[in-house]
Recover the amino acids of this structure.
């Protein structure tokens, strides 16, 4: 049996679709031997690596009011501080360490000062995952070991490279499809689309290196903060992946 690597992209609320996709993979008996994730993918990846099945992960999402764990930062670094959200991961992964995980996990974050992509796989877990989720301009960078860390998706929204050499088969789940239709004339929509285009272009090399790429086109209609649409996002991830695996008559 080949050693399977699972790579989970960032995407904010769209990352909930990862859980639906993972449920479909579970039904086909596909379990990762190592996981790599960034941003929302790091959060989902941590829960999966600890041993939570997809249905339990989805219940965690439904039962968590993420807005309760965010607070205004009142600084130029970002509008919100994400540090209190550490309580969420500690609640469900009380050991709060990479070493407590049942499946090896690699989390990607970005050092905003050094302009450097960083990979973490040992030590304290919650702060690293949260640092990987710090979307610039929205969340204040998370200070850790003398570094100011932000969203790992800035440099690499599908971090295949950190686990590529230790796996035989890469399954990538990318929740940021981009349909090439005409964007809205509103400035914020044009800006948002431009950022997504740039991030997708940077991720293209990683997308091409996946043996199986799961990327549901329907996710393009959702935005980063659509947490109230969790059920729909979960269902899209599940249905698309289930159909894809059925069509491919999938075997590793």
């Amino acid at each position: 049996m080949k050693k399977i690597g699972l790579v989970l992209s960032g995407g904010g609320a769209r990352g909930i679709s990862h859980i639906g996709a993972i449920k479909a993979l579970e039904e086909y008996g596909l379990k990762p031997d190592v996981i790599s994730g960034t941003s929302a993918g790091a959060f989902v990846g941590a829960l999966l690596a600890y041993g939570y099945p997809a249905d339990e992960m989805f219940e965690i999402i439904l039962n968590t009011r993420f807005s309760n764990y965010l607070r205004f930062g009142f600084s130029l670094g970002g509008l919100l501080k994400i540090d209190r959200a550490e309580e969420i991961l500690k609640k469900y992964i009380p050991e709060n360490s990479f070493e407590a995980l049942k499946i090896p996990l690699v989390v990607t974050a970005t050092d905003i000062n050094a302009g450097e992509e960083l990979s973490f796989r040992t030590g304290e877990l919650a702060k690293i995952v949260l640092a990987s989720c710090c979307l610039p301009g929205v969340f204040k960078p998370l200070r850790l070991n003398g570094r100011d860390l932000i969203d790992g998706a800035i440099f690499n929204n599908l971090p295949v490279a950190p686990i590529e050499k230790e796996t035989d088969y890469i399954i990538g789940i990318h929740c940021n499809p981009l349909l090439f239709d005409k964007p809205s004339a509103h400035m914020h929509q044009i800006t948002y689309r431009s950022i997504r285009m740039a991030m997708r272009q940077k991720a293209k090399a990683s997308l091409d290196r996946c043996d199986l790429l799961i990327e549901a086109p329907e996710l393009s209609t959702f935005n980063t903060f659509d947490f109230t649409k969790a059920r729909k996002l979960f269902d899209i991830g599940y249905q698309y992946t289930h159909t894809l695996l059925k069509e491919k008559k999938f075997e590793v």
